[in-house]
Design goal:
There is one protein chain. By secondary structure, the protein is α/β, with parallel strands linked by helices. It is built from 18 helices and 13 strands. The strands form 2 sheets. Strands 3-2-1-4-5-6-7 form a 7-stranded parallel sheet. Strands 10-9-8-11-12-13 form a 6-stranded parallel sheet, with helices on both faces. Strand 1, helix 3 and strand 2 form a beta-alpha-beta unit. Helix 1 crosses helix 2, helix 2 packs across helix 4 and helix 3 crosses helix 17. It starts with 6 loop residues before the first helix and ends in a 9-residue tail after the last helix.
Length: about 450
């Protein structure tokens, strides 16, 4: 049998062979022709590169399709990074209480330092990056839950054998500072609040997309943070400042260095919590922060201990600002460096952050030019803080505050039951749901009805 290469690869290889076998010619090439020839050669080389890379990706995808074709589960939960596991753990516990089987796929190994999983939860560690996504892209499941956006946009593709994809919020967001098409191709979204829900509907209208299920869920792990806050030691009489900015070009440390921390420490005790990603992406700056004198540096896996000790938070665009304000009821000062929405969903939505506008009384924006007077701003915000304003905004901006994991588990169960009911309908009609239904019944499970 004769195997043929794809047409693009065959053409590129033939062109390269012609160039390599060409005989020397004593001829003059004018500059215009030389430029044209350079473009042709560059195009051939790039075409060959992307063709070979495409073949590699397809080979990896085919490998996982053949090697793991017998792997399937009912409810799959995908966690790409340990930072997001805190979102899933309370939901997993609630699903276990409902008698539902869950398989947790992590793109990292879980060792003894991680919280133990409930007994009926299956765990599979898969490789990070493209190889791990090739595995997920050929998964078989009734429902897949993730916090990872951009389904069917980049490497994370829909599997033809997964019935339903849903994404859950791991922070209070508004679909503005996320990458393009972040939510577009999910079947449903477990929304954190009404701003996110409204903005997703706007994006659907702008892009003429069919309306997906937008469920009023909340933020599942916040209730765990609330429990920790309730049992934490009372605040001391001396105000403590927590400095916990983001990482990257918009970080306070990137913009202003670390000198402002020493200035604050002259008046208040200071806890500095560098963003975990800084250790990877900005290692030199991370080492400078660890070496700061006269302050406490916190690098724990979760920020709960640091937040519980602080009276006020100084940050920038980090998601910790909403956790500190809404869970602890304490004030925040942010350095208001305008975040460009170019290349993000905010460029399509237009305007400025709705969350920032509605939280400005207790997450107080301060101009970057005021960094030399930041200690005075912290003192003023502490004096003028109102817990009641925080509670009013919390009730308005966050769905199901304090019970998000139970609501999420109920919604996931409802999505799961609905899909299985559709599978049963397809089976009775002789459709393509027969294989999944047969495996489900063979495992001794009772088919739930949609309710």
């Amino acid at each position: 049998m004769i195997c043929r290469l794809p047409a693009r690869v065959e053409s590129a290889a033939l062109a390269c062979a012609c160039l390599l076998l060409a005989q020397p010619a004593h001829a003059y090439i004018d500059p215009g022709t030389g430029s044209a020839l350079l473009y042709v050669v560059s195009g051939i080389v790039l075409s060959l590169y992307f063709s070979v890379r495409g073949l590699y990706y397809r080979a990896v995808d085919l490998f996982f399709r053949a090697r793991f074709r017998d792997q399937n589960c009912e409810i799959a939960i995908h966690c790409e990074d340990p930072r997001y596991e805190i979102t899933f753990l309370p939901v997993i516990d609630a699903l276990q209480e409902r008698g539902l089987d869950v398989t947790l796929f992590t793109m990292y190994e879980r060792d003894e330092t991680f919280p133990s999983l409930p007994g009926r939860v299956a765990h599979r560690a898969i490789p990070p990056g493209m190889v791990g996504y090739a595995y997920l892209n050929n998964l078989e499941a009734v429902l897949l839950v993730t916090t990872t956006p951009q389904l069917d946009v980049m490497t994370f593709r829909r599997s033809r054998r997964v019935r339903h994809y849903t994404i859950v919020s791991h922070a209070l967001g508004e679909s503005r500072y996320v990458r393009p098409f972040a939510y577009d191709y999910f079947d449903s979204v477990l929304c954190c609040g009404p701003i996110l829900k409204a903005n997703i509907r706007r994006m659907e209208g702008i892009r003429k997309l069919p309306a997906k299920q937008l469920l009023e869920t909340g933020i599942p792990h916040w209730e765990d943070l609330m429990r920790r806050a309730q049992v934490s030691a009372p605040l001391g009489p001396q105000p403590v400042v927590l400095v916990a900015p983001s990482w990257g070009p918009l970080s306070m440390f990137e913009a202003f260095g670390t000198g402002f921390v020493a200035q604050i420490a002259k008046r208040y005790p200071v806890i500095v919590r560098p963003h975990p990603q800084m250790k990877v992406s900005q290692p030199d700056l991370y080492r400078q922060i660890l070496a700061l004198d006269g302050v406490t540096v916190d690098t724990a896996r979760t920020p709960s201990a640091a937040m519980s000790r602080a009276h006020i938070l100084l940050s920038d665009i980090s998601g910790i600002t909403h956790e500190f304000a809404f869970i602890y009821g304490r004030p925040v000062v942010i350095i208001d460096r305008k975040q460009a929405a170019g290349g993000l969903e905010g460029e399509v939505l237009g305007g400025d952050s709705d969350l920032k506008e509605q939280c400005k009384d207790f997450i107080v924006p301060t101009a970057p030019g005021e960094i030399d007077r930041i200690t005075d701003h912290l003192s003023r915000v502490l004096e003028q803080h109102s817990v009641e304003r925080v509670r009013e905004a919390r009730d308005r901006l966050i769905y199901n505050f304090g019970r998000g994991s139970q609501v999420a588990a109920q919604q996931i169960e409802d999505l799961y039951r609905t899909e299985l009911a559709r599978v049963a309908a397809e089976e009775s009609a002789g459709g393509h749901g027969r294989g999944l239904l047969r495996r489900f019944l063979k495992a001794g499970r009772r088919l739930p009805s949609a309710s």
